[in-house]
Each structure stands twice: as C-alpha cells, then as structure tokens.
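Internal tracking record. Fields below are filled automatically when a chain is submitted to the structure queue. Please do not edit lines marked as system-generated. If the sequence contains nonstandard residues, flag them in the REMARKS field before resubmitting.
Queue: standard
Priority: normal
Entity type: single polypeptide chain
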Amino acid sequence: MTDIQAAPPRRMPIILCLGLIFVYPLLVIPLQMPLHELVLRAGRNEARFAAEAFAWLYAAAVLAIALFWERRTPASIGLRRITLASLGFGIGALAAIYVVGGIAGYVVYFVLHEPERAPAQVAALLGGSLLYALSLGVRAGVIEEIFFRGLAIEQLTVLTGRRRLSALIATSVFVLMHAFFFDWVQLVPVAAISVVLAVLYLWRHDLWANIIAHAVVDCISLTIIVLRVHIAMP
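SYSTEM-GENERATED OUTPUT FOLLOWS
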C-alpha cells in the first residue's frame, strides 16, 4: 500500500487573494466618502448603499477564490461553528481592546498632546446617520477580520512557513490601510487594537470571536460619534 501525500497548496489563488486583500483599502476607502458624483446624481443614501454593496460583493469574490479555487475550508480560517466560547472570548477581547486602545490613546493625545482629529473626520463621513454607522461597524468587523486575520494570516503562512511573521505582515497592512483616512499619529491606537485582534486569532483560531470583538467595538465607537453630533445640534 502506498502512502497518499497531501496535495501541494495552490499558490496562484493564494497570491491573487492576498493581492485583492491588500488593495482592498485603495478601492473601498474612497467609496466610503461617499462618491460625490453618485451623491449628486442618485442621492446620499443611494451612494452609501452602492459603496456598501460593492464592499460586500468584493469580499464575497475574494472568499470564493479561497474556498473554490484554493480549496480552503471555512474552518481553516477559523469559521467553525459559533459557540458560547466564541461569544465569551469576543467579549473578553472587547475589554482588552478598550484597555489597550485607551492606554495608547492616552499616550498619544494626553502625554504627547497630539490633536485628535479622528472623531471629526468620522463624523463628517457618517453625516449623522446611525444606520450607516452600524452598517460600517458590522462591515468592518466581518470583512476586515476575514481578510486580515483569517485569510491573510493563513495564506501568508503557506507562503512564508512562519505563522507569527505572517500575522505581523497582515497586521502591518491592516494598520497602514487606516492611513488613507487618519493622520499617522492616530495609527498608534489602531496598531494597539490590531495587535490584540491578531493575538486573539493566533491563540484561539476562532474568527467568530474576532468578528464579535471588532464589530462591537466599531459599532459602539461610531454610535457614540453620531450621538455626539445630534446632541451638539441646536
């Protein structure tokens, strides 16, 4: 009886997936503004819907390449059956994010006295819409975790053979993508939060926990910004 060897990994779909993941900010961040021409022609809500639909379809295409061409399973990127443990570790990571992000923010804005422009920038993007804020929070939690934790870390590990290095690369790209919208100094809290999410994924390999933590923290943060805008309105 001969041994059956595992099929070698399919590198072409891996490279294509990583390329699409790493250019995702170049395509989606400008669409969040939203597109001025589309706003003028179709209206603000329609422009937002078009931008969100594009982001979800883009993510579905990337995931389809990984699942059907690379022949990767959902479990290989941590998308196993969601459990109470997923919820528990997601909530625990949420608490860690607030602690680590709060410390990083304190150092940047109170110790170094850097101006905090992010809330005003985000408020201008949201335009006072709570529904849009929640849709952005959910989309960021789902798509960014699938892209930068699940797929990127696992696929880079296939190429490099080093899991921690792969997590470092994926996390660095994730942090840099926020430079399209925030000042460089504001990337310090983003980097701190990203490290928490990367460590959680490496530790638990449960992407649901990551998605829960990421989506909840974004939804809470964006909701607070929207509420502040409405409170400040005369």
